[in-house]
Amino acid sequence: MKILATLAISAGLLFGAVDINNATKDQWMSIKGIGDAKADAILTYRKDHCFKNIQELTAVKGLGDKFVEQNKKDLTVGKCKTK
Fold first, then answer.
1. pTM confidence score
2. Which whole-number Å values give the CA distances from 35 to 21, 41, 70, 83, in the listed order?
3. What CATH number does residue 55 fall under?
4. What is the pLDDT of residue 63?
5. What are phi and psi of 33, to 5 degrees?
6. Which run of H or of E encompasses 6?
7. Does any domain span residue 24?
8. Is residue 9 part of a domain?
9. Fewer beta carbons within 10 angstroms: which end of the chain, N or C?
10. What is the pLDDT of residue 8?
């Protein structure tokens, strides 16, 4: 079952970008450079802050300009549903 979920997430990346305001932990972990701890840090930050643009990801500890530049084609900013 876990393999199926991973395949589904990976397939989603081929056809669409990850919405940084609404992505699940598994979706975050499908992005190169994001593991368990960074996905948790993003989700924790997002509880109190909606992202207005992709560059704001640099406010999350462990994510910098290099990460944003390398992954911006795989990321999008959707409507914030957390607030």
1. 0.77
2. 18, 10, 16, 25
3. 1.10.150.320
4. 95
5. 95, -5
6. helix 2-15
7. yes
8. yes
9. N
10. 44
Q: Are strands 18-19 and 75-76 parallel, antiparallel or unpaired?
A: parallel
For the chain, the domain total comes to 1
What is the amino acid identity at position 55?
A: Q
CA distance 50 to 60: 12
Query: What does 29-67 look like in DSSP terms, one character per residue?
Result: HTSTT--HHHHHHHHHHHHH---SSGGGGGGSTT--HHH
* Short-list 64, 71, 70, CA closest to 23: 71
Write down how long the chain is.
83
Among 78, 24, 21, residue whose Cα is nearest residue 8: 24
Q: How far apart are the first and last CA of the chain?
A: 32
